[in-house]
Design brief:
By secondary structure, the protein is low in regular secondary structure. It has two helices and two strands, in the order ααββ. The chain has a two-stranded parallel sheet. It is elongated. About 55% of the residues are buried.
């Protein structure tokens, strides 16, 4: 059976993060304290502060104004970025695994080749999903629960969002984008296998060559989307809206998709 109880999956994620946290603790403390981070930001009013390559793991950076900051290759493992403003920040290659992202704003941020595994988006006083509107997430590795999140206009070309079938020791962890705003998103060549996309807004999105093997797309809106070369093998397409979709004839695996006969 492929379906696992959500509570079980989350417990596996917590266990994975706990193991990684232990390793992070053994590796040593963060390079800067919160006060030192505030000091660097104070020296760069209007943005432009640099934390490239720094270890900021496990710090509470909640509510900080990090607009336009450079955080390339920065270690933000298990850091708290609750309601932080990261609009236009450069987080290329950053490690955000296990980070607390409730209410964080990544609009227009650069997150190319970053890692967002088992990020925390639920719990605490802030109940708002992080925002990735217009962000550059090309090549990013993501395993996260982001139902209803806003990623409209983002670039997720070649992103690795699907299940890593080779690593089943901690259970089969999926990305949840149920009901998310994915309008105009570039998913060209992205791996979305087994991703939960039910009732997502995918209007005008680019799914050329995307891997949607066993993805759940029931009720999703693919109006005007480009589907050329996308692989829908064993995907759930029940109730999917495909008005004005492009490249449907070039899509693969439709004969093995659930609900495809309704199209």
């Amino acid at each position: 059976m492929e379906t696992r109880p959500r509570a079980w999956i989350r417990s596996c994620r917590r266990a994975a993060c706990a193991s990684l946290a232990t390793l992070a603790t053994l590796a040593g403390a963060a390079d800067l304290s919160r006060d030192q981070v505030l000091g660097v930001l104070a020296q760069s009013p209007g943005g432009g502060a640099s934390f490239d390559g720094k270890d900021l793991s496990d710090l509470d950076l909640s509510g900080l104004d990090l607009r336009g900051a450079s955080l390339r290759g920065t270690n933000l493992f298990a850091s708290k970025l609750v309601s932080a403003d990261l609009r236009g920040a450069n987080l290329s290659g950053a490690n955000l695994n296990g980070a607390w992202l409730m209410g964080a704003d990544f609009t227009g941020a650069q997150l190319r080749d970053a890692s967002l595994l088992s990020v925390v988006v639920l719990g605490g006083e802030v109940r708002k999903m992080p925002t990735f509107k217009g962000a550059d997430l090309r090549g990013t590795r993501i395993i996260a629960d982001l139902p209803g999140a806003d990623l409209s206009g983002a670039d997720l070309g070649q992103a690795r969002i699907g299940v890593n079938i080779r690593n089943q020791g901690m259970g089969q962890m999926r990305t949840d984008l149920t009901g998310a705003n994915l309008s105009g998103v570039n998913f060209e060549g992205a791996d979305l296998n087994r991703t939960l996309l039910s009732f997502a807004n995918l209007r005008g999105s680019n799914l050329r060559g995307a891997n949607l093997f066993r993805a759940r797309l029931s009720g999703a809106d693919l109006t005007g989307a480009d589907l050329a070369g996308a692989d829908f093998t064993e995907a759930d397409l029940t109730g999917v809206l495909l008005q004005d979709a492009k490249g449907l004839a070039q899509a693969r695996g439709l004969e093995r998709a659930e609900g495809a006969s309704q199209r």
